[in-house]
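Weekly structure sync, notes
Attendees: PL (lead), two postdocs, one rotation student
Agenda item 3: pending single-chain targets
PL asked that the sequence for the first pending target be pasted directly into the notes so everyone works from the same version. It is reproduced below exactly as submitted, 103 residues in total.
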Amino acid sequence: MSGLNIIDKGAGHYLVEGDLTFATIDKQAVKSLNFLTANKEITIDLGQIRNTDSAGLALMIEWIKYCRAKRILLRFSNVPKQLLSLARLSGFDQDAHFAVHLG
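Predicted structure, written out during the meeting:
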């Protein structure tokens, strides 16, 4: 198990690395949405996620809801297959943030 890091790559691009699980997502991670307000267009690269579970999907949903409320365009790239499967199981795969990744 490794921690969760959100790395600012500049110009509204962020890289999430580590584990996106119940063990690594704490209240601080959920409440720390400030990085989402830096730009009007945000891309979050999830390609460096090692492990994930339903807490990872829940955090992504929180990011989506927050960005919608703030009128920020949010995109995900390199979404792990585990997260896409969880989105499909929960019926969330119809959301545009996930639908573009599903085949």
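Discussion points:
- The two ends are 30 Å apart (CA to CA).
- Strands lie at 4-10, 13-20, 41-52, 73-77.
Action: rotation student to compare against the earlier draft before next sync.
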